[in-house]
Amino acid sequence: MERRVTLKKVSLKAIAQQLNVSVSTVSRALNGKPGVSKRLREQIIKVANDLGYTPDPLAVGLKRGTTKLIGILVPELKGDFFATIVESVERALYHLGYRLLLCPTEDDPKKEEDHLKILVNQRVDGILSAPANFRSNKSLYEAIINEHKIPVVFFDRLVEGVETDYVISDNEEGMRILLEYLISKGHRKIGFIHPLRGIYTSEIRLKTFLEYKDKIVFQEEWIKDGKSSEEDAKEAFTTIMRSKEKPTAIIVGSYHMTLGCLRAAKEMMLKIPEDISIVSFDDAPWNEIFEPPITCVSQDPREIGLIASTILLSRLKNKKMGESRIQTVLKVKFLERLSVAFIK
Amino acid sequence: MERRVTLKKVSLKAIAQQLNVSVSTVSRALNGKPGVSKRLREQIIKVANDLGYTPDPLAVGLKRGTTKLIGILVPELKGDFFATIVESVERALYHLGYRLLLCPTEDDPKKEEDHLKILVNQRVDGILSAPANFRSNKSLYEAIINEHKIPVVFFDRLVEGVETDYVISDNEEGMRILLEYLISKGHRKIGFIHPLRGIYTSEIRLKTFLEYKDKIVFQEEWIKDGKSSEEDAKEAFTTIMRSKEKPTAIIVGSYHMTLGCLRAAKEMMLKIPEDISIVSFDDAPWNEIFEPPITCVSQDPREIGLIASTILLSRLKNKKMGESRIQTVLKVKFLERLSVAFIK
DNA sequence: GTGAAAGCGCTAACAG
DNA sequence: CTGTTAGCGCTTTCAC
C-alpha cells in the first residue's frame, strides 16, 4: 500500500476537473477556509490525497507573499560551532514546513550583503544571521527589518545599533573568567590571539581584555589578530613565542585558532602547559582529547540555534509583536582542564 | 555614490511605465532577446539599473520552471567532512547565481524522502545528494531523474542501481590500504568499527574488510556497528577492548567515531599505539594534533564538492547530455602517522 | 521593432 | 455554499 512515489504535476485545476467544481472551491476546501459544504470538502480532500496533490510553493509565494523559506547566514560551516547551530535550527524549523536557504559569508561583509539582497528578493519569510561585521550592513539590515518587514534574528553576533531580536553569549563574562582564572593561577604575562577584527565577538573580547591592562603585564606584541583562521593563528602564536620576552599564557579567541596554536606549539616543541599555558574560547569534541585537554569557556551551539529559531518562529506567527525585542544573553560555561600551569 | 541599499519592489511594469513602453519589450530587452532596437534596449537597461530592478525569482520560476535553487542533501554538518563539501559547493555555485537549499537527513531515509519530495515540489534546478542509504529511496531518485527531469549528482555515497552521475572515493582501495598496512606492521588480530549499516560507504568498507577474512585473525566480536556516532563508537571500542581476546589493531570507519574511540581509550587508560593500534577513515585537522597523531586514509572534501558542483553545472547547462554518465572515483590518500605499533 | 494577450498555479474579492 | 473574475510578476506566442 505504498504511497505513490512519483507525484506528477497535479494542480488545483486537475482536482477541480475531476469533481466538476471550480478551482476556488478546491482552494477553499484544502485551505480549511469556510464556505464549503462538509460533504464536498471531504470529497475534495480525498481526491487531493489520491492524486498526491501538493501546492506549488512558487505560485503560493507569488500570490500570498510567503515562501516558507528561511535564510541563514553563517561565516562558515567548518569546525562544529556554526554547523551545530545550523543543524539545530533545521531541526526546529523542519517540522513546521520551513526550509533553509544556506548563506555562508566567509566573514566578508560584501558577500553578506549580496546574500541579504538575494534573500529579500527571494522573499524569504525570515532571516537568521551571525553577521560578518559589527558595523557593516547596518542600514541594509534596518531596511530589511523596517521596510521589507522581514524579521531578522541575530545569533552569536550582532550589528551594533540594529534594533532587533538576538541571542548571543556573554563574551565579556567569558573573557573575565579566563583572565581571572589565569591570574589566580599566578599568570601575569598574558597574550591574546583574537578573532578577525570587526567581528562582534572579536571586538567585545578584545575590549574586555584591554580593561585588564593594569592587572596584568600588558605588552602590545602579545596581542595578535588570528583572523579566525588556523593558519593565521599558527603564525601569530609562533611570532609571539619567538619574541624576546614571552608571555606565560595565551588566550585563544576561537576553536579554529586553537588548532593552529597547538600545531605551532607542536612544531616548536613547546610543551603545554609547562612551556606555555593555553586557554580558549569555545569548546569542541576534540578539545578534551588533546594532550593536555584544553581549558576553555564554552557556549552551547545547540541551545543558541534552538533559541534563535524559537524567537524567529514567534515573530513569524505574530507579525505584530511590535517593538518588544527579545534579546537574550547566554551564560558561558567554564571548563577547567589541564592546559594551564600554576606559576609560583 | 553608494548603491541604493533599499530596493523597494520594482517590477517590469514600473520600468515599462517610466518609459512608456510595454512590459514585454522591457522583458525582452533585459533578457537580451532579439527584437528591441539598440537605443531602446540601452535606455531600458539604464532605467532598470537606476531603479535597482531585480527579477522576481518566484514569478520567473512559475513561468519558466527554473528556480536557481539547488538542493543539497547531507547526513550532517558537524565534523568538518560534509561541512567542507557544502562550503565548497556553495563557492562553486554562488557566482553563477545558484542558491543552496540545505537538507540534513540525519542518515534517516524517511527524512531524506521528505526532503526530496519537497525539493521536487520547490522545483529546484538540481540536486546534490549523499544518500542516507544505499538501497532506500531508489525509485524516488529514479522518478526525480527520469520523470521530473531534475539532474541528481551523488557524492561520497550512492544508491545502488540508480543511473546517474556521481563522485565517490575508492573505498575498497582505502580499506585495502589500511589492512595491508596493518598486516605489514605485523598485525593479524584486527577489529573494525564501521559506520551505520546501510550507508553506502559502510557497506563497501565492510565488504572489503570481509574479503580479508583469511589473511587475518577473524573474530565476529571485533566487528561492531559504530552507527557513525561518537557515543556508539565509544561503546563499541570499550566492548571490544574488554573482550577476553583483544585485537591488536582497530580500524575506525569515520572521523566522528575516531573521537569516540580515543575518548574510550583515554578512559580505559589504554595507550595508543602500545596497547592498541588505531587507523581511521577520513582525516581531520585535529587528527594530526592528537597524541599520537592518527594514521588514516583521507579524501579531499573540497575536491569532492568542487567536482560534484561541476558535474551538476554541466548538466544544468546541457539538459540533453543524454545518457552519458559522469561517474568519478577518487583515489584516497594514505597518511602514515604514529598510531600504529610494530608487532614482532 | 513593438504591443496585446494568454497563462504559469494559486488566492481572494465579488457575485450569485 | 459555489462559481466567476482578477491579478501576483514574468515570459512568450501572435499580431501589427
TrEMBL record, chains A, B:
Domain HTH lacI-type: 10-64
Entries under InterPro entries matching the protein: HTH_LacI, LacI/GalR-like_sensor, Lambda_DNA-bd_dom_sf, Peripla_BP_I
An MF annotation (GO) of this entry: DNA-binding transcription factor activity
Alphabetical list of Pfam families matching this protein: LacI, Peripla_BP_3
Name of the protein this chain belongs to: Transcriptional regulator, LacI family
CDD domains for the chain: HTH_LacI (cd01392), PBP1_LacI_sugar_binding-like (cd06267)
Native organism: Thermotoga petrophila (strain ATCC BAA-489 / DSM 13996 / JCM 10882 / RKU-10)
Gene3D superfamilies (alphabetical): 3.40.50.2300, lambda repressor-like DNA-binding domains
Keywords on record: DNA-binding, Repressor, Transcription, Transcription regulation
